Amino acid sequence: MYADTNTVSKADGRAVPWNKGKLIGQKPPLKLKEIWAIRIRLQLAHRTRELALFNLAIDSKLRGCDLVGLRVCDVVQGSHVAPRAIVMQKKTQRPVQFEITEQTRDAVATWIAAAHRKPEQFLFPSRMSASPHLSTRQYSRIVGAWARSIGLDPAAYGTHSMRRTKPTLIYRRTKNLRAVQLLLGHTKLDYLPRQTMSRCRRIGPSVGR
């Protein structure tokens, strides 16, 4: 049913574009003040799982499928959450390393203890018995709820907003595209918003694709 790019209107039988009335294209990253606004709301609401998910999504810069597929042993060494982790990306089959900041380590450790997760188990289990871990669709809905909670349009933000947030902040501070690519394990520049990309083009071919 998703193969066709058009659907048929019941009123007059004419084809209607699948994306009519929908926001498409790149999802914007979160700004620093928006990150803290969401983080504080999750802390005040004692939403342990979502705080760990939010912080790890920002730190890891992983695609949604890789984030929800994390197991406890991917981020824990011994009895502590590791300061760094390496994950094999499903899309590219390439490993990517990321730093786990102290506040994220604290949030993840609190969640693991509260949920009694074991090393071999998925870090973020689904609340639906049919799925062993949080699905990308569930994760997408959670991201939308985060955006809505601070007055943003949930339709304008998605899981790639989380993936692009830290790289965009790093680029704006360092202007080092190559460093950002290495952090993401990415070979293209599609993780940066269009406003940043317009500035990238003025830099010249300093980054190999």
Textual characterization of the structure:
With 209 residues, the protein is mainly alpha-helical. Helices cover 46% and strands 10% of the residues. It contains nine helices and six strands; from the N terminus they run ββααααββββααααα. The chain has helices at residues 32-44, 48-60, 64-68, 72-75, 102-115, 136-149, 159-174, 177-184, 194-203; strands at 6-8, 15-17, 76-77, 80-81, 84-88, 95-99. A two-stranded antiparallel ribbon has the order 1-2. Helix 2 packs antiparallel against helix 5 (102-115), helix 2 (48-60) packs across helix 7 (159-174) and helix 7 runs antiparallel to helix 8. The two termini are 35 Å apart. The relative contact order is 0.15.
Task: Offer a concise description of the structure.
This protein is mostly helical and 209 residues long. It has helices at residues 32-44, 48-60, 64-68, 72-75, 102-115, 136-149, 159-174, 177-184, 194-203, and strands spanning 6-8, 15-17, 76-77, 80-81, 84-88, 95-99.
